[in-house]
Amino acid sequence: MANLSLDDLMKSKRLAEASEASAGVPSVPEPQETGNMVLTDEERKRVDSIKENLNLMDGQACLQFGTPAQRNISDFADSILNTVRSKDSGYVGELLQQLIADIKDADLSGTEDSGFLEKIPILGRVKNNLERLKARYEKLEVQIGQIEGKLDQAKMEMLKDIGMFDMMYEKNLEYFRELNLYIIAGEERIAELRREDIPGLRSQAAASSDPMAAQLVHDLEENVNRFEKKVHDLKLSRTIAVQTAPQIRLIQNNDKLLVDKIQTAVLNTIPIWKSQIVIALGLSRQQKVLDLNREISRTTNELLRRNSELLKTNTIETAKETERSVVDVETLKKTNEDLIFAIEETISIQEEGRAKRQEAEREIGRLEEELKNVLQGIKKEAK
Fold first, then answer.
1. How many structural domains does the chain have?
2. In contact, 245 and 253? CB cutoff 8 Å
3. pLDDT of residue 183
4. Are 136 and 307 in contact (CB under 8 A)?
């Protein structure tokens, strides 16, 4: 790039004043696609183009230097932050926790215990137990199926996010390279001005008869200082781009880990759980049948023992009754004693009655004699 002369500086000053008067902004080339960090020929041309279009006597142009790329970095960082905020990373964990809870809460052990005789008929009890077990298994199967569907849906969303993060990473790399070109162009231009142009301009201003020449050189130096701060701001934006890259990869890797976990749950864990549930159901059915067989054996033995005891008691009582007389000797003896007592009492009563009748006859005879004597005495007196 040719060294600046005092005339060039004054011309640049007039151009800047005209640009400010028309409220225009110097044309700064739009960022283009760049290659590797080591500058290629195309990138070299891009840097030279940025330097050639840079007018440091135009304060507005200095402020706008690298602004498009810088704004892209800021907007891009905001989009990354909003994406992270809007993602519910705990949703997959909640689904897996719910799946585990459903498995733990599943009761495939059968029905409640109660007396065997209360559940007759036995076949009805077997059927009811198996129906209840089947209903519980079907309910658990539906719950697992629903969660499996939600996990598949979450996996598809995360795969989309992974693809989106790849695009975001490439975009961030593009912004980073564009910023780097602006920084290289700015640093090279500052170095050229301080190493070649400004010393020459100072000499020209000292030899010039124009009193404003020195002020123009001083303004240029001030603008270079401000421009250097602007380049520093671009470096901060570049640092943001550098930090954003691992953030994108970290989020992307977390999604990949969750996708792997979902894949493992859907293709490995859930099928294993389903097969184990079927096995548990079969074992529970076997246990119930064994329990019923045990109850049948116990009840059969109990009935046999009870019937045997009753048979023994009835046989003994029957034998006793068959060997027993119709009328016991004791009964005959008692009857005979009662009969003898009754006869003796009857004779005694008859004798007592006879004696009383005889006494009564004698008393009646006496009374009749007394009456007769009284009547005879009355007759004698009457004569």
1. 2
2. no
3. 92
4. no
